[in-house]
Amino acid sequence: MQLIAGLGNPGEKYRDNPHNVGFRTLDQLMDALNLEGFQRRFNSEFFRTNQNAEVTLMLKPATFMNCSG
């Protein structure tokens, strides 16, 4: 199992902020793999995929960057 967490600030207001590089990276990875469907779970946007018998979780926390680490 792999967990890929992309940190950033939630909300459209911060979309292009440099702190959101983690969110944008996950979005680009999803596009490159032709995946879609982040869900709201665990106080985050969450995606789970099982490809080639490997489970991968992608997570964008709904907390602000300065509160996430």
UniProtKB/TrEMBL annotation:
<dbReference type="InterPro" id="IPR001328">
    <property type="entry name" value="Pept_tRNA_hydro"/>
</dbReference>
<dbReference type="InterPro" id="IPR036416">
    <property type="entry name" value="Pept_tRNA_hydro_sf"/>
</dbReference>
<keyword id="KW-0820">tRNA-binding</keyword>
<keyword id="KW-0378">Hydrolase</keyword>
<dbReference type="Pfam" id="PF01195">
    <property type="entry name" value="Pept_tRNA_hydro"/>
</dbReference>
<dbReference type="GO" id="GO:0004045">
    <property type="term" value="F:peptidyl-tRNA hydrolase activity"/>
</dbReference>
<dbReference type="GO" id="GO:0000049">
    <property type="term" value="F:tRNA binding"/>
</dbReference>
<protein>
    <recommendedName>
        <fullName>Peptidyl-tRNA hydrolase</fullName>
    </recommendedName>
</protein>
<keyword id="KW-0694">RNA-binding</keyword>
